[in-house]
Amino acid sequence: MYRSRTCGELRIEHVGESVTLAGWVQRSRDKGAMLWVDLRDRYGITQLFFNEEGGSAELMEKARRLGREFVVQATGKVIERVSKNDKMPTGEVEIQVETLAVLNPSKLPPFTIEDDTDGGEELRMQYRYLDLRRRPVQEKLRLRNKVALETRKYLDSEDFLDVETPVLIKSTPEGARDFVVPSRMNEGQFYALPQSPQTFKQLLMVSGFDRYYQIVKCFRDEDLRADRQPEFTQIDCEMAFVEQEDVLNTFEGLVRHLFREVRGIELEESFPRMTYEEAMERFGSDKPDMRFGMEFVNLNDTAKGKGFNVFDSAEVVLAINVEDCAVYTRKQLDAITDWVKRPQIGAKGLVYVKCNEDGSFKSSVDKFYSQDDLKEWAAAAKAKPGDLMLVLSGDMDSTRKQMNELRLHMGNELGLRNPNEFKPLWVVDFPLLEWDEETNRFHAMHHPFTSPKPEDEHLLDKEPGKVRANAYDLAMNGVELGGGSIRIHDRGVQSRMFDLLGFTKEEAEAQFGFLMSAFEYGAPPHGGLAFGLDRLVATMGGSESIRDYIAFPKNNSGRDVMIDAPSPLNEEQLDELGIHLAHA
């Protein structure tokens, strides 16, 4: 037996017990006649004590040769520490070592295996197996494990069945690009990796399974960022004989359960709801952060027509009120202006209005607007003396996006986005379709299987852009945790949807004929929702990046720098697959 106890469980009541521990050397402290070694495993750290007076010279010499990350086994007695450490759970005791065995030496790690490491992200990803030894990373993965476990408990208690669906499937257009897999046995043909199990979970409802779930890998070949990976994990769910309200109530229950059991936090009993149109008007985002205010104020009525061409030529003039920030210096305001003008944001400039304590106003457009004009702006924005108004203008869509980014930026600057405060919001009534100027046709805002709201179905033929979807997203703290919809379950409606999306009858049949055929055999009304497990866990952990909550993530280029993937195939493999690469 390599160990009788772990490095995290010994306490003062274990004094006198003989134990065997095994783990990694965290650090050593040599004081000549005495030497201490911190021994670490995934459960914690225990201090080992070596003493020349009570031990052999050979044992002391062996202890002195230990390096960082050596794997060792130590046997000895638990004794009370003279100098206790109240910051460690095991800080009242140590092991008086009697025998020591080096199970495996270690090269000097390329970065320190500490809570606060000196390794940059690229280096840590290259040696991810070492990075995973660090306590903060292990805690994040323990959080992920706990969320997955409690998800299974809750869904099982609600009569959901865990059903696996295929990973090698047919390539179908669902939005992002597919990852494709060549078939050796069917030369010239390809599988795709699923962007989601969408059609399979609908087929399970047709099959009568009633309530399905799966914690499942999904794959999308799209540009990456901090909260996106080419492979990610969904809590994927579907229910039959339900309406939107049933789905929302069920998964509010899941989210409340997770926060209660995993974080010890009681969320509000009924999550607030907001239409997509209202969310865009008030916050410029379909996943608004509700932890703070700074709602958009439309200044078109008061700011246009005064000879300031920037505003007069704009489709919309929007402001946010930043409370108690009139003290911002010119240097600080210039920094904010430079920030919104970055290519990632795209604004051409920024107008500010300081609401002075004496009731007067100071703005960057004093030349065009009188004190009475600015007073009207302040009234519209509910700005009081001491507040700061920030104003952007332009076309509606881009200005809303820019103002949303500015709002979040100011929330970060002012410490208003508390990572330990959680504000859920259901966003409902999304548009069913969105027009793409480049392709000159409609695209599904969610996916082609989302049903229109029954009261809008008559608009499908004449005004499809006005049709609302029976769709819903759950947002929290500016992050979309998940989304879903009530699905189309009628072949005729599904066929009309494909027509709107520009599919020919032949294309629709080739891509989705299996699903439409299934609808002819008694498909029940059904709907569902999928949570992004990675985003959910990162949000619960108070992080913006999902990478530390994934054991082996990929970088922004979609590469695994640890195993150096993707990588070329040799000619023999390519020949076997009937693939010939075209080289420039």
Characterise the protein shown here.
This protein has helices at about 55-65, 120-125, 130, 135-155, 200-205, 245-265, 275-285, 300-305, 310, 330-340, 370-380, 395-415, 490-500, 505-520, 535-540, 570-575; strands at about 20-30, 35-40, 45-50, 70-80, 95-105, 160, 180, 190, 210-220, 230-240, 275, 295-300, 315-320, 350-355, 360-365, 390-395, 425-430, 435, 440-445, 470-475, 480-485, 525-530. The radius of gyration is 30 Å and the shape is globular. Strands 6-9-10-22-21-20-17-11 form an eight-stranded mixed sheet, with helices on both faces. It has a five-stranded mixed β-barrel with strand order 1-2-3-5-4. A five-stranded antiparallel sheet has the order 12-13-16-14-15. Helix content is about 30%, strand content about 25%. α4 (about 135-155) packs across α15 (about 535-540) and α13 (about 490-500) packs antiparallel against α14 (about 505-520). The chain has three domains: about 10-105, OB fold (Dihydrolipoamide Acetyltransferase, E2P) (Beta Barrel), CATH 2.40.50.140; about 145-170 and about 195-270 and about 425-550, 2-Layer Sandwich (BirA Bifunctional Protein, domain 2), CATH 3.30.930.10; about 290-415, GAD-like domain (Gyrase A, domain 2, 2-Layer Sandwich). It is an alpha+beta fold and about 575 residues long.
Features:
single chain; 584 residues; alpha+beta; OB fold (Dihydrolipoamide Acetyltransferase, E2P); BirA Bifunctional Protein, domain 2; Gyrase A, domain 2; 3 domains; 8-stranded mixed sheet; 5-stranded mixed beta barrel; 16 helices; globular
